[in-house]
Design goal:
The protein has 292 residues and is of the alpha+beta class. The chain contains seven helices and 16 strands.
Amino acid sequence: MSEVVLETNLGGVNLLKRGKVRDVYEIDEKLLIVATDRISAFDVILPNGIPGKGEVLTQISLFWFDKTKNIIQNHIITADINEYPSQLKQYIKLLQKRSMLVKKTEPILIECIVRGYISGSGWLEYKQTGKICGIELPKNLKESQKLPEPIFTPSTKAESGHDQNITFEQMSNMIGNDIASQIKDISLKIYDKASQYALEKGIIIADTKMEFGFYNGKLMLIDELLTPDSSRFWLVETYKEGQPQDSFDKQIVRDYLLTLDWNKTYPGPVLPDNIVEKTAKRYKEILEMLTL
């Protein structure tokens, strides 16, 4: 099993923040985003990570950023470490495949979620209200069922704890109707293009979340894109509506944790080797299926 990168320390480079997975550094008005192998579940970062996870997330994001650049500009400057600033050369081995140099944008603090199928928090909300984020849906939908058409269901972006679903009207009040409408339209276009491509590879993209920001007043796509951490990927050949699906994400970890007597607060339990290995294999599998 390859070495696990849980934390990066780039001496002499300004660490802006550590997220649940990514370490973000600031270099001359640019950002260096490094995806570690950390894994969180139930909003708790677990003690041990998943080897290669950060590389998978970065490579999948780069793949989709390139595939969707005709829809909207994104924040990527380069992921070629040979083009990185000289102060990063000593960290080449660490940064290889798991980092990207990006424009420093002003983020819009809204998770832009598109759902093509009804699952997760959307399914729970629908069972209670018949709606998701204020959108009225047909009656008697089943869990994991394909929706008549994809829907845009934004949420607030919480630094800690859970994001909260909001209506499109609430989003418009927060950022203005013109920008909200533009983001909704772009998000739906990206989902449509990506989901059609993925279907050809035998993958259903049930839902995904995107983030946007402004750079010199121009709207652009930022953060990660269509990764197993931000999307639900299901196999076409095993898909069956009316039940939960087997996802290409950290569901293996969640399922294991639910068997433990753990109260879902810090510190989280150490994952056993077999769970780590299964999860690592799952992440690599989706990278290969989508990009090869």
